[in-house]
Amino acid sequence: MYLKVDSLALLNSFNQIWMECWLEKGYVLENENGASDRYIITDGNDQRVGTIEFKPYSLDQQHNINTVFPFQEIEEIAINPRSVIEIDKVAILKQYRGKNLDRLLSVFVHYSEKHQISHCVVLLERMFYKALRNVYKIPLQAAGEKIYYKGDYVIPAIIYPEKVYQNKQNYRWILNDPQAQKRKLIFT
Known about the structure:
Blueprint: E1 2-4, H1 8-25, E2 37-42, E3 48-56, H2 64-68, H3 75-79, E4 84-92, H4 100-114, E5 119-125, H5 126-134, E6 140-142, E7 147-149, E8 152-159, H6 161-165, H7 178-181
Parallel strand pairs: 4-5
Antiparallel strand pairs: 1-2, 2-3, 3-4, 5-8, 6-8, 7-8
């Protein structure tokens, strides 16, 4: 279902996937080397199909996402920034889109639960925002108006993963975490 990026070879694969997806969409590429947890999403045949990155969040105005939208000024974010993460580099290769979104979102839920994350800050493409809200029923809210950023309009948003992982029975799309079932700790 996923691979934690913990080697140069996996990092190269991770970068190849998200860059291909972003170039397809016409987005400007940025490659940051800061602290983050990166995962490669795999399909039922162990084919590498997508990516997701979880970055520590900071209230610092110079923190990359805060330079695009002032998340640090939102009270619910400022109260407990340690329970907030930034989500970036969400991508699924064009030929694998569809059912693999369940896999990507399941990794998000498992990661958030493991780290007791209550809020996620993210810049979402408009159609993806609507799919998360209307199809997957993920609790999220727009934090502001759409912004043109790196080649497309994005919605600065807050996602509430705690409401998902505390009520998994309401989200039939969540897949079991095979590594957790084997009692392996992969989220470090």
